[in-house]
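Below is the record:
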Amino acid sequence: MNLTSNDIYLQPHSDDICFSLGVFAYRRHSGTLLTVFPISNYVELRLGATTPSKEWITRTRMAEDAAFAKACGLANRVLELEGAFELAQKPFNFGWVGENLQRIRSPLLDVLLKTPFADKSSTVRPWLFCPVGIGGHVDHVAIRMLVNQNFDQLSQSYRIGFYEDLHYASSAAARSVGINNLWQEAHCRNLRRYVFPLGEDVAKKLALIQLYKSQFLSMPQSIEQYTPAVEPPNPPHEAIWSDEPMEPLPDVST
C-alpha cells in the first residue's frame, strides 16, 4: 500500500491498536494514535486487592499507550471521553450504542474532519484505521457506526480500513458476528480482507502487548489470543477490511 505519514490509528481504549494492529503499526512506523475513551477505571486486579483511583488508572493506561506509540513512531492524541464502563453502562449491551454514538459524534468528527492530518501537498489520502466492532463492546461498535454513517464525507479525506479487534477476533463465533455486522453496514461497498502475517515478528507483538502491564495478572506468553480465528487455521496475523487497494493481496478466507 502507499505509505503515508499522516495515517490515524483510531482506538476506543488504550491497548486496542496494540492488540489488534501492533506489528502493522510498528512496521509502518508513522502516523497518529488517537484514543477516543482514554479515561478509565478498569485494571486487572488480584482477588481482594484495593482498586486504585480512576485518575491513577487513567494515568497508568495513558503512559502505557505513550510507550507503545513511542515504540511504533506514532504521535499520541486523546479525546478525553469516558467510555461505557466508566459511565456505569453495560459495555456489551447493544442498547447503549446509540447513546455512545451521539456522545462521540461531534468531538470525533471535529478531529477527523477539521484537523489537518492530511498532507495537503500530497495527492495520496492518508489511512484511517478503525475497529470492526468484533466482540460487541458498545464503545467499539459506536465508532464503527459513526465511520460508516459518515463514510462518504470521511472517504474524501481518508482511505478507510476496518481492523479486526483483538483479542475478541480470536473467538471464531464473535468474529463471524462482527464481520457480518460490518458487511451489513457497508451496504454495497466491496470490502476485501487483507492479511498481514506476523511472521518473525510474533515475539515483537508479544513484547508490545506486554507494555500494557495494567491489563494482565500474568503476562501473555502465547500469540493465540492476538490473532484472528479463521478456518482453516492460519498462521498468526493481523487483518484489515477495506474497499481501497492494499498490499499484500486480499485474503480469500473470511
User: Anything to note?
Assistant: The first strand starts at residue 8 and ends at 11. The mean pLDDT is 87.
